[in-house]
Design a protein that fits this description.
The protein is α+β, with helices and mostly antiparallel strands. The chain has three domains: 170 residues, Sulfite Reductase Hemoprotein, domain 2 (Alpha-Beta Complex); 149 residues, 2-Layer Sandwich (Sulfite Reductase Hemoprotein, domain 1), CATH 3.30.413.10; 80 residues. The chain has a five-stranded antiparallel beta sheet with strand order 3-13-14-12-11. Strands 6-7-8-9-10 form a five-stranded mixed beta sheet. Strands 1-2-5-4 form a four-stranded antiparallel beta sheet.
């Protein structure tokens, strides 16, 4: 054996060096070229097609449909935990980084110093920082004190003390490194939370009334229906490849408090003169550059059929939704094209197999029915709830921990997030007048703000939730 061969055999293998910025640019350009070539071939003679699966053609017609067609995006979690968290940010291919990662609540962050005017002229790899925003699901806006404290601890340890309350009743953390994601997943899931399908072309977090189970004017507590939808659809490959995101909401209050007009599907509590309390069904709402208010189908949904109807509506979106153009891929465009009558007909005949009874519409709010639950309010059990609205939803890990302390001091294990202007709220479990107890809680909040004025937030009040005792939760729901 030659000396050269001997030397090669005895030299220890070196770990591959991190990819340079130039390597990443070359890889991105090559992948983009291949995708464009495949797309051009796929789109040949299909200019009039909208990419509806129900038409029998599943040819991917844009880059997002291309990467979704190669496998369930939820499978990326295995690569996050076994590969990317060990090899670092620059080992992540673009289709995972800017695509499949969202199925687990991860978005890339923009590099500091890049204003919005430059985003259209820079390539993605020039925009992306080496950190992520992580969205934690809290369906119905429900958090326990222990869950809030764990998110606060993760924020302070891994997210530079960031914690934003979103108008989807989530908490979002920033400055997350891919190397830390497996440990964050482990700790979040250990307290019964999860990030599954918090982003992506999937059923997003389910909005729920933040005063579910405690509101004095509540017709029905929607918490069991929220759990049933989670069990049926979240993390289910049957619904993990939609044309675009799918937003759901459900409330049991007489005056809707979950912005039902701008959801893809919404269930609003009503009282049927013959069938009792159930839900009025709305579909096809949405905002963005083509805003459209949701449409009432005039159908009454009994509580034990909510999950089935939800699955039917999202099934229509999956099969008939427009996939060719991302700008037309929301359910609202299909509803606008079909109209309420056809949508209900397809839902009943093709997806449910039974007719939904006609039902009344929800009660219309009056001036003063804000629905944000700001203030101190009496519950139906004689106790009181109180909350505070952070400015633009921006808090911090330290403040979230303080909120948990205040809720616990007031005798509550329940913290609730609302969809109204990014409000945060919690319940105070008191059996007598709250004059002294609320003063105590709010003064504690003021003392906390005085000790850290740079991160203070106003002590306006906003609402919260369920007085039910804790009980085992279904494994998928992870409450």
């Amino acid at each position: 054996m030659s000396p050269t061969t001997d030397a090669a055999d005895t030299t220890p293998h070196r770990a591959p060096q991190a990819l340079t910025d130039a390597d990443e640019r070359r890889r991105h350009r090559e992948e983009a070229r291949l995708i464009r070539t495949r797309e051009a071939a796929a789109r040949k003679d299909t200019a009039a097609k909208d990419g509806q699966w129900a038409s029998g053609d599943r040819t991917p017609l844009n880059p997002n449909e291309e990467f979704k067609s190669t496998g369930d995006p939820l499978e990326v979690r295995h690569r996050i935990e076994t590969m990317y968290s060990k090899w670092g940010f620059w080992s992540i291919p673009p289709s995972d980084l800017r695509g499949r990662f969202r199925w687990w609540g991860l978005y890339t962050q923009r590099r500091p110093g890049i204003d919005g005017g430059r985003t259209a002229i820079l390539e993605p790899h020039q925009l992306d920082d080496e950190y992520f925003m992580l969205r934690v699901r809290s369906d119905g806006g429900q958090l326990s004190v222990a869950q809030a404290r764990e998110i606060a601890a993760i924020s302070q340890e891994f997210g530079r003390d960031t914690a934003d309350v979103s108008d989807r009743q989530n908490i979002q953390l920033h400055w997350i490194r891919v190397e830390d994601v497996p440990e964050i997943f482990r700790r979040i899931e250990a307290v019964g939370l999860f990030t599954t399908e918090a982003c992506g072309d999937v059923p997003r977090v389910i909005l729920g009334s933040p005063v579910a189970g405690v509101a004095k004017d509540e017709l029905i507590d929607p918490t069991p229906q929220i759990r049933a939808i989670i069990d049926r659809g979240i993390g289910n490959p049957e619904f993990s490849n939609l044309p675009r995101k799918f937003k759901s909401a459900i409330t049991g209050t007489r005056i809707p408090d979950i912005v039902h007009e701008v959801q893809d599907v919404a269930f609003v509590a009503v009282e049927h003169p013959e069938l009792g309390v159930g839900y009025d069904l709305w579909v096809g709402g949405g905002l963005s550059i083509n805003p459209q208010l949701g449409v009432r189908l005039g159908a009454f949904v009994e509580p034990d059929k909510v999950a089935d109807v939800w699955a039917g509506v999202i099934g229509i979106f999956r099969d008939h939704g427009y996939r060719r153009l991302r700008t037309r891929a929301r359910l609202k465009f299909l509803v606008k094209a079909w109209g309420a009558e056809k949508f209900r007909e397809v839902l009943e005949n093709d997806y449910l197999g039974w007719k939904l009874p006609d039902g009344p519409g929800p009660e219309v709010g009056r001036p003063g029915d804000r629905g944000d639950h700001v203030g101190i309010h009496e519950q139906k059990d004689g106790r009181y709830y109180v909350g505070a609205a952070p400015i633009a939803g921006r808090i911090s890990g330290a403040k979230l921990a303080a909120i948990a302390d205040i809720a616990e001091a007031a005798g509550s294990d329940r913290i609730r997030l609302t969809p109204s202007r990014r409000c945060s709220s919690w319940m105070c479990r008191r059996t007598r007048s709250t004059t002294s107890s609320m003063d105590c809680a709010l003064s504690s909040s003021r003392r906390s703000r005085a000790s850290s004025p740079a991160t203070s937030w106003p002590a306006r009040a906003s609402s919260t939730a369920s007085s039910r005792s804790s009980r085992p939760r279904p494994p998928l729901a992870r409450w």
